[in-house]
Every structure is written in C-alpha cells, then in structure tokens.
Design brief:
The chain is mainly beta. It contains 4 helices and 20 strands. Strands 1, 2, 3, 4, 5, 8, 11, 12, 14 and 17 form a 10-stranded mixed β-sheet that branches. Strands 9-20-19-15-16 form a 5-stranded mixed β-sheet, with no helix packed on it. Strands 13-10-18 form a 3-stranded antiparallel β-sheet. Strand 2 and strand 3 form a beta hairpin.
C-alpha cells in the first residue's frame, strides 16, 4: 500500500495512492490515520474520491512523528569523505518535528549559516509501539513503511557547535515524502539517489548500510520508545555537498518516488 498526506478543501487528509495509466494518483481518503492502524494498513477504512494526480496535489509531509531519530555515518564512504571514523555502533541524533517540509516545499538557507548541505536518505516510518523488543522479534512487524528524507544540514554550524541539534533543526531542514509505501524491501537492496539541478550527486544502496535496519531499530528501542508515526532516516551515501539559492534538490528512493524541493536564501 502507498499513501500520502495532502490538503483537500482546506483540510489535511491521508490519501491512498495507486498507479493509474503509469501515473500515481490519490484514489481514496483514509478515514483512519495510518499510524493508528497498529501496523495493519490493509485494515484501514477508506472513502472514494475523484482521482487527483499525485504531482498535482497540495502535498503535506506524509508523517506526523513524535520524534525523528536520525542515523549518522551509516555508509562507510560517507563517513570517510568528511574525515570521520567509521562508527563502531550506530550514531544517533534527533531532528525536531518543526523542521518537516513537504515535497515541493522550499528549503530556506538560514542567515546564520554559510554552508547548507543536502543529504538524501531512505527513512523508516514506525507502525507499532516498539520498546526493547525481545531477541527473536522480527523488527519488520514494527515498520509501517518507508519514505524519502533530505537531512538538510548547516555544515558549518555542525562543526562549530560540536553537537548537531541546531545544525539539523532549522525550519525546512527535513523535507519528507512524497508518500509512504510498504512495497519495498531495503534488506534486498534499494537504490538511493540525490540530484541537484538534474546532476547526480549521491548514489547508494541499502545493501551498503554499516548497520542494517534490524540493528538500528533494536539499538534505538533499547533507549527510547518508538511510537507509531515516528521516523528513522537511515543515513546518507557519500557525495554530500552544498546548496545555494536557486538550486532544486531531488532525493529518489527506488520504489518510493522522488522528493523534490527548491532552495532559497532566508
């Protein structure tokens, strides 16, 4: 199942997305939020609407998380490109929910920063409450689906501050979308690509994770409860670089779609 969140008649709605003639369209409204489904998207009640092409809808971030738990340096080459050691265990940080931005929304480069970088990522959306799962639990039962995220970062402030909250937390610094899907398998390998003004800047595959999803979810859930709707961006491939006003950055995840956002100066 694929779903998005969008504006319809001035109200936020979740919409069921289907392919019609090779083009994604919103076909039905979900009458219950997906994060309330206890991981069972197929059980959600829906209501049919006149189809709306996904690329013509006014999209909202497809997630409403209590927290966004990010993973740093989960691709070996990305750790090395910034002169960092490859981590021996997952490196976690938080992005604030006020940094969320929908597909098509405008990324603002803040006046406080002289270098703002893109970081394209696959993100996990949690579907069931997860805290300290037992050893034989299959973590897939806790996953609602997957989406694209751009972990926009004020790189100079990240280095200056020594911790990452401010550098990662500016408004508009977490574009997410355009939809959530449970129809991909990151364990089998999913391509992640970032383009700036049409030029490919990042290419990776989830097979190259240093820490696979089961390790990440278990590691996070040892410390904090993951609630339905929470988001876990899983790390970015090598090739990160700066954005300037006028750029258009696109994050594509195989089987999910493309998250496209223009860039302006604050």
């Amino acid at each position: 199942m694929k779903y998005c969140r969008f504006q319809l008649n001035g109200q936020a709605q979740y919409g069921l997305v289907e392919s019609v003639g090779g083009r994604n369209a919103i076909m039905r409204i979900l009458l219950t939020p997906p994060e309330a489904a206890d991981g069972d998207l197929e059980s959600l009640r829906t209501r049919r609407i006149e189809p709306i092409a996904l690329d013509e809808a006014t999209l909202l971030p497809p997630v409403c998380p209590s927290k966004i738990v990010c993973v740093g340096r989960n691709y070996r080459e990305h750790a090395e490109e910034l002169g960092n050691e490859v981590p021996k265990e997952p490196l976690l940080f938080l992005k604030v929910s006020s940094s969320l931005l929908p597909a098509g929304g405008t990324i603002r480069r803040p006046k406080l920063s002289e270098r703002v970088d893109f970081e394209g990522e696959l993100a996990v959306v949690i579907g069931k409450t997860c805290y300290q799962p037992v050893a034989n639990d299959d973590v897939r039962q806790y996953i609602l689906g997957y989406t694209c995220v751009n972990d926009v970062t004020a790189r100079d402030l990240q280095k200056k501050d020594g911790q990452w909250t401010r550098a990662k937390g500016f408004d508009t610094f977490c574009p997410a979308g355009p939809l959530v899907t449970d129809e991909i398998d990151p364990w089998a390998g999913v391509d992640v690509e970032t383009r700036v003004n049409g030029a490919v800047r990042q290419q990776g595959n989830t097979r190259d994770f240093i820490f696979p999803l089961e390790v990440l979810i278990r590691y996070i859930a040892q410390a904090m409860t993951l609630f339905p709707g929470d988001v876990i961006p899983t790390g970015t491939p090598s090739g990160v670089g700066p954005l300037v006003a006028g750029d258009v950055v696109e994050v594509s995840v195989e089987g999910v779609g493309t998250l496209r956002n223009p860039v302006v100066d604050e």
